[in-house]
Amino acid sequence: MLGGGQLGRFFVISAQNLGYQVTVLDPDQKSPAGLIADIHICAAYDDKSALDQIINTCFAVTTEFENIPFATLKYLENSLIVRPSSQAVSIVQNRIKEKNFLADNKFPVGPFHVIESEDQISKVPDNIFPAILKIAQFGYDGKGQVHVANSNELREAFIKSNYAPCILEKKLPLEIEVSVITARSMSGNHVFFPIAENEHINGILDTTISPGRVSNDIACKVKDYANDIAIKLGYVGVLAVEFFIVEGNIYINEIAPRPHNSGHYSLDACTNNQFDLQVRTLTDLELLDPNFHSNTVMINLLGDIWFKENKLREPNFNILIDEPKVYLHMYGKEEPRKGRKMAHFNVSGDNLNDLLVKASHLKQRLSN
Ligand code: ADP
Ligand code: MG
User: Fold this and answer.
1) Which of 34, 88, 176, 250 could cross-link to 40 by cystine, CB 3.0-4.6 Å?
2) What residues contact residue 105 under an 8 Å CB cut-off, 6+ apart?
């Protein structure tokens, strides 16, 4: 597993449950996945001796983090099974390549412009504003994004980013955000997880409702787009696609070459969760259906709730632990920071509205 974050940690748990041993590569001594892996190689993602150790001891490689250097994946691919492939990851890890891939293949995307130099700014039409300038690489959870109202603000933001290559996107009036996760095997079999409906706060996922409250027509189209993207990428593994719905129209926001935060409901809502499927696509086990059995609301817990009146304290997690059909998942991160994903909880049951009310009460009580 390349990457030691919480997504990697859940993969380690799924793989170990099936009897596999997992090596995690992550430069952080205390990475959530590294802490529970059979072997944690604490080194940079381009450390040649670390990669050689992986080649000499591992059977197959996957990732939980899209910013793994292309050269690393390519190097490992010469000797091992690597899923998803370096080629697929290299498209998805760069917003410029990703947007061009989507547009070239006639997938629906909102209006956008590539900004790689200052003179491209003067060519941007006025009707793109208000817009969001997104850095092409290494952005996540809304980081590396600046809202700009006009071309002066755009120029300022581009200079402030040190002329880093960017995508400028028209800010769309979102009705609803949804995502879908699909798993695709080497032989081209695929399964879908139910559509997730996502609410973000300050660019960070806050709540996921599953199944998302969209029409059958939208749900089918969204799944078809995700599958077509996987086919066009020659993708093997777990793939997540985020969508915007605007005035009944579907736009693709972005693609993640891995399990996704919006699929965490599957840990308690499905017999086979998104990480189980990641293991299965990697090891050529049969692609079991996720078998969704319970409506579920997921709430992310950021480091913010560890701070009360700016003093650090541990939230009272018994509020969640003592509640039936509420499932807490802590990521094992030692240091809570504002905006840092520390944990999430799932609330499962029947009526989605009731689950939403229950989840928001629980989060409120936890924050008190
Ligand atoms: P990240 O890699 O941080 O998830 P996204 O591009 O998905 O980056 O942006 C994070 C969130 O910001 C989105 O889920 C959405 O809520 C909002 N957002 C991003 N792009 C747009 C847009 N073009 N119009 C309106 N809202 C947007
Ligand atoms: Mg996103």
Assistant:
1) 34
2) 228, 232
Q: What is the pTM of this model?
A: 0.97
* Cβ–ligand 1 contact at 137 (below 6 Å): no
Amino acid (one-letter) located at 84:
P
Q: What separation in Å is there between the alpha carbon of 203 and the centre of ligand 1?
A: 6
Number of other residues whose CB lies within 10 A of the CB of residue 123: 9
As beta bridge partners, residue 191 has: 183
143 Cα nearest atom in ligand 1: 3
Which residue reads 């992550």 in tokens?
26
Ligand nearest 67 Cα, by number? 1
Name the β-bridge partners of 40. 24
Q: Does residue 139 register a pLDDT over 90?
A: no
Q: Rounded to the nearest whole angstrom, what is the distance from the C-alpha of residue 36 to the centroid of ligand 1?
A: 32
Residue 110 Cβ contacting ligand 1 at under 6 Å:
yes
pLDDT tens profile 252-267? 999 999 999 999 999 9
Q: How far is the CA of 241 from the centre of ligand 2 (A)?
A: 9
Phi first, then psi, for residue 124 (nearest 5°) are -75, 125
